[in-house]
Amino acid sequence: MQEVLIVGGGKGGTAILQILHEVSVMKVIAVVDVNENASGIKLSKELGIPVGTDWRPFLSDSVDIVIEVTGEQEVFEQIRDHRGKNTVLIPGSVAFLISKLLEEKEDLIHQLTSESFKRDLIFNSTDDGMVGIDDQGIVMLFNKSAERMIGKHQEEVMGLHISEVIPESRLTRTIETRRTEINQEVILGNGLKIISNRIPMITEQDEIIGAFSVFKDITEVVNLAEEITNLKEIQTMLEAIIHSSDDAISVVDEEGKGIMINPAYTRITGLSREEVIGKPATADISEGESIHLKVLQTRRAIRGTRMRVGPNRKEVIVNVAPIIVNNKLKGSVGVIHDMSEIQSLTQELDRARRIIRTLEAKYMFEDIIGDSEEMMIAIEQAKLGAKTPATVLLRGESGTGKELFAHAIHNASDRKFNKFLRVNCAALSENLLESELFGYEEGAFSGAKRGGKRGLFEEANNGSIFLDEIGELSANTQAKLLRVLQENEIVRVGGTKSIQINVRVIAATNVNLEKGIADGSFREDLYYRLNRMPIQIPPLRQRKSDIPLITETLITKINQDYGRNVEGVTALAMDKLMNYHWPGNVRELENVLGRAIIFMNYNEVQIDGKHLPQLENTAKPMVNLAELPFQVDEDLATQVEKYEKNIIQNVLEQNNGNKTATAKALNVSVRNLYYKIEKYNIEINSMK
Q: DSSP string covering 252-279, please?
């Protein structure tokens, strides 16, 4: 017989003691707990088992098993260190698990032996609703099926009068008449139709003590009967609906053979009824796999699959779903959408959207084409700027898409439902630009309108204004714009009163504002106000990986404008486009593609190399430092500075004056590059 020491006399220790006391192969030699009133200590005393508050006196080499149920890690570790080499230590988690299993066992035995449990099990296992009342009409019985049909829980109806629970009930009349009523039809307040059997409960002494009702939901039965009655009519209507659909519909049986198609199917695929009905599901496929067969194998719907069908290889999108009746697969039904119709509708929708947005911001970030790292950085910066009210300065060469970014920033901001106004600062004279931006008062100048005029800043209140070519502003206009950015107010031309405005300014430039600050043509304080959120839009030559995607988008746009149907470009033409330097950026690319499409024949659908104009790169070669002359009359520092100036100037020319790209190529910071440009007085404008 194995000797067992139990350390811990709590709930877990008590449960273990009860189990081991009934086992003949084990003997509990002692129960230890620091609490002398623990339940396990009391039980041990009743059973005549030694007890104590310290386990050490009881732990000897003769102890076979120690069960530690204190739940304290320190106690567990101490016992582990002091036990004999043949003593097994069982942790409290195992004891706790045994305790829980024992409790669940006792509870289950109690439930199964309970009379009320048996009664409730019988009442709640039936699909029929059961309601019982006493002789006063108070609800005494209400099973689960009654809960489902009546829509009320047992807890909330027990003890209530039956008229409060089921106003339509006639159980009280059953008590009065003492007569059984069989197969009585009742419509409940929730619209459910039931068949009820009402029985009075009468004792052997002929004393009525209540009434009992058993009822069945016959709503589904009635509906099923109506469906069977009208089956032929429904079938006729279903066939009429299928045949009236503009989408092609095909149905196959569980073996994958066609059993039904509609006229639209014949129109789209070009296959007759005789070529499909009774034939395998692959009969209509010219390119791709049978989706019907896949659905029959997996019993799961498949949607949005592209394929080509019929002798004309019509491109379609297929949605197929299984037909399952009583958990048995009976076949599948497929709906085929003509892709040419979808593409036509999509193009019309895109065109309608552009027309709707003509007077406001027309573009969104989804309209900016490109997935190169350089463009994605610019787009992420713009999206971040759109969520703030900060002024945004878009920098980039002409044709890189600065206005496109401005539209997208407005449409992604919380001002998107307000006005978006565009101003080209280089297209208007100084006096006209000032009056257009800030408005004027009556009599401000000759020809001024009576009553004055609101400026664009006032018109764009609570919206956005896009100032393109910001570097072309005059000094006076710059001062007024600085007031707008600092104080959020304007003063009309010829006026003295300040007008508060709330306008988001998005500025753009392709000139070197830093050089303008150096030569005094651009205010330094305005520069710092505008340059709070600068976004550098990369030129096309720095993101040539985007050219195929941009070309595809531009061809679609040109097709709509010119009424053409060009599908793409050949590999030779794409090679020429990829190898060109693109000084005019995306605008030049659109010009080249548009010119090529104009001179193409109408039966040609691919732009080839012969359609493209001559594209010659104008990038200047790198200076060979070894060829630079050595001046013996100049010191080393002076000559190093000359070489450094030549290197910076050469790389700037290769990057068309783009300082960010130049700094990246030279592996220096942009701040350091600006310092070198100013130090060596390098001209940037001549490089563009």
A: EETTSBEEEE-HHHHHHH---GGGTBTS
Task: Give 635's contacts (C-beta < 8 A, 6+ positions apart).
Answer: none
The two beta strands, 248-253 and 181-187, are unpaired
pLDDT single digits (tens) 5-16: 888 888 778 878
Contact by Cβ (8 Å): 8, 34 = no
Helix residue ranges, H only, 602-669? 636-654, 659-666
Q: How far apart are alpha carbons 433 and 62 in whole angstroms?
A: 105
Q: Which of 59-68, 348-357, 622-631 has the lowest mean pLDDT?
A: 622-631
Asked if 492 contacts 439 with a C-beta cutoff of 8 angstroms, the reply is: yes
Per DSSP, the residues of 199-217 read EEEE-TTS-EEEEEEEEEE
pLDDT per residue as tens digits for the range 2-48: 888 888 888 778 878 877 777 677 888 898 888 888 888 888 888 88
Tokens of residue 24, six digits: 């003949």
| Mean pLDDT computed over every residue of the chain | 83
Strands 568-569 and 606-607 come out as: parallel
Residues 545-554: pLDDT tens digits? Answer: 999 999 999 9
Residue 432 and residue 445 in contact, taking contact as beta carbons nearer than 8 Å: no
The model's pTM = 0.43
Q: Please measure the distance between the N-terminal and C-terminal CA atoms of the chain and give it in whole angstroms.
A: 100
- The DSSP-derived string for 519-585 is HTSS-HHHHHHHTTEEEEPPPGGG-GGGHHHHHHHHHHHHHHHHT----EE-HHHHHHHHTS--TTH
In SS3 terms, 231-258 reads as: HHHHHHHHHHHHHHCCCEEEEEECCCEE
Q: What does the pLDDT average to over 631-651?
A: 79
* Cβ 475 vs Cβ 481: under 8 Å: no
Q: Could you give the percent of the chain with pLDDT greater than 70? A: 88
The DSSP code for 64 is -
Q: How many CB atoms lie within 10 A of CB 666?
A: 16
Cα–Cα distances (Å) from 427 to 397, 404, 437, 510, 527, in that order, read 18, 19, 13, 15, 21
Collect contacts of 298-303 with beta carbons under 8 A, ≥24 apart. Answer: 299/324, 299/329
> Burial level of 73, CB count in 10 A (0-12/13-18/19+)?
exposed
Lookup: tokens for 58: 């009881």
- Provide the CA 194 distance to its chain's centre, in angstroms: 46
The letter for the amino acid at 356 is I
